[in-house]
Amino acid sequence: MARDHVLETLRDAIGDTPVLTDPDIMAGYVGDWTGRFVGRTAAVVRPANTAGVAAVVEICARHETPLVPQGGNTGLVGGGVPTRGEIVLSLRGLTDTLSVDAAAAQATVGAGVLVSALHAAASAAGLAYGVDLASRDSATVGGTVATNAGGLRVLQHGDTRAQLLGVEAVVGDGSIISHLAGLPRDNTGYHLPSLLAGSEGTLGVVTAVRVRLVPATRARAVGLLGFASVEQAVTAASLLRNGLPALAAAEFMLSPGLDLVIRACHLSRPLRGRHAAYLLIEIADKTGAYAVGSGTAVGGIPGSGTASRNIAGRGITGTGSAGRATVLETLADAVAGLPGVQDASLAGDARGCRALWAYRERHTESISTFGTPVKMDVTLPLAVLPSFVETVPATVTGIAPEARTWLFGHVAEGNVHVNVTGTGGEAEDRRIEDAVFGLVADNGGSISTEHGIGTAKRRWLPLNRSPSEIAAFRRIKQALDPAGILNPNVLLPDAP
Ligand code: MLT
Ligand code: ZN
After folding, report:
1. pLDDT of residue 16
2. What is the pLDDT of residues 355-391, one digit of tens each?
3. What is the average pLDDT across 37-50?
4. Any idea what DSSP says for residue 444?
5. Ligand 1 pocket: which residues have CB below 6 Å?
6. How wide is the angle at C-alpha 71 spanned by C-alphas 66 and 74, nearest 5°?
7. Ligand 2 centroid to residue 150 C-alpha, Å
8. Which residues of 109-134 are buried (b: 16+ CB within 10 A; e: fewer)?
9. Structural domains of the chain, with CATH
């Protein structure tokens, strides 16, 4: 009854159309796409602007009705799902704002705008947006801010938080805070964009942001490299990161994962043989420093015999050919001078680059063909990453003998996505998570690289955050969300 009254009040405030109660329509909002988190709700509310969001939050606060803000629903930790019957506040309608200020190299973007639409707008102005991820066609900018998404370009441009120059948001009492001028030097108090990024909808509902844009990539080259061990791949990634300023991405995969992607996506084998570990690397020309040219070299190590440049941890050295090299030549030279590379495929044209990226980007969908995986997303110091990668599968099978562990990730930042399929149910899943997160904490790592805490990991937050940090988190939440209605079942562990 009380819920009916809230829905009526919402309809009076923002109209009938944005308050959805048809179960068939709501089905697309109550579960995440992995199928791991499914909730229920009395209504999905889809305001079309910031004033509408403010009205919804104010009404929910007044009636002490919890809500879950939701963007494109591409999250992986249950942070946008109404697991305890909360109202879903969908921000997908906030798409009207998308303006690029080319002179300032910035954009003002509504929360509901897709990441791919922001890419397109930036590109039309000769610029680029620094965050990119495989879910770019369904993830919203607001959702990536709320989760501080990382993705494939953190090495070059940082995470979503690093792009933010301003934010507009509705805090827990329904008031709007807005600071979107985008002044690159602005030292006037607390940096609210930083606080809201990664707060997973617990402190405020992000309605728009001002983001920095970066120079567009003029040319890129991608390499898929095979190694005999994870340790060699990690060493190679470090050498490349320290010696190749144009390095734009460094991702790692293992043999079982690559084989699975080949099978599930009907792709051809990218290298002649199998290798224990693979690196997917990209270099990007952002300044026009490289000569124009492209091409693809599949199989074998291109550049062999012309390895006039080396990665020596201090930059690319050597004679090179007269004049400027293309990005592909630069990549080929770097790979030829890299220890441990058993084989490599390189591409310098758009089609070839996309084809090589597919082996990495399509891991998630390929793993999902086994059903809903247990998904963990952790960071390790690079020095212990190889031993972690070797230990985890045995740790998992020690608990769930039938389970399979899939490991891949953003190696330059020490990230490992640990996906486990074929487990024996929830109790076993919890024991696996306990064991893996324990191993991460013992090795000085983080239990969330980029997916956030959500509902999935809140009980393990104390592994990474001290009691006084968590107490400070609670005080910040109390200040911005006094009624405790904003995503109350996410991020913070249950109160003691
Ligand atoms: C990715 O980098 O592909 C995703 O963040 C990983 C995942 O699905 O676990
Ligand atoms: Zn990732």
Report:
1. 87
2. 999 999 999 999 999 999 999 999 999 999 999 999 9
3. 96
4. T
5. 76, 134, 363-364, 375, 377, 417, 419
6. 110
7. 7
8. bbbbbbbebbbebbeebebbbbbbbb
9. 2-93 (3.30.43.10), 98-215 (3.30.465.10), 219-361 (3.30.70.2190), 371-452 (3.30.70.2740)
